[in-house]
What does this fold into?
Amino acid sequence: MAREGAPVVHSVDTDIFYHRYFGRCMQCGFCADSCCQHGVDVSVVERDRILARAAEIAPLVATLPAHWFETAVEKDEDFPGGAATRTTVVDGRCVFLRRDARGCVLHSLALESNADYHELKPMVSSLFPVTFGGGELLCSEELVDATLICAGEGQTAYEMARGELEYYFGPELVAELDQLSART
Ligand code: SF4
It folds into this structure.
């Protein structure tokens, strides 16, 4: 079980040990953060945490807080709070993607204040390109179908997400995944 009560993971798709991509994102000079072009799913808990800090975040974002998230909320037991929505897309990019530099506003704001970026950055963004659904850990669709611009060579999805999986799910799960990875 993840630290905020969801998702609860029962199985893993071993694709996460095989699919590779250029995992050192900030060393990349050609993608222009294209993996953020579609926005991201956020739990209602994460949405509310971000909105609670709207005064700090708003000067760094192009639109008003009322337009940061899709209004539709869907029940989803894989997300903390049992429901999720999605960040909006503005000019073909997630509303929280920086316009003045590379990277995510939510991540960089945390770093600038010496805070843990997990306090604001959505779990789906942190785990990418590992994701979850129906109680399973799996590869994000765009890595599997190779529409992710940097898919193909480099680190495996698991290698790059290992630290984040440990943060969200704890060392016991990662120890199990390490064993599984060694057998694949
Ligand atoms: S929240 Fe940040 S990391 Fe996630 S898609 Fe938006 S800009 Fe990218």
In short: Residues 11-183 form one domain. The longest strand covers residues 83-86. DSSP finds seven helices and ten strands in the chain.
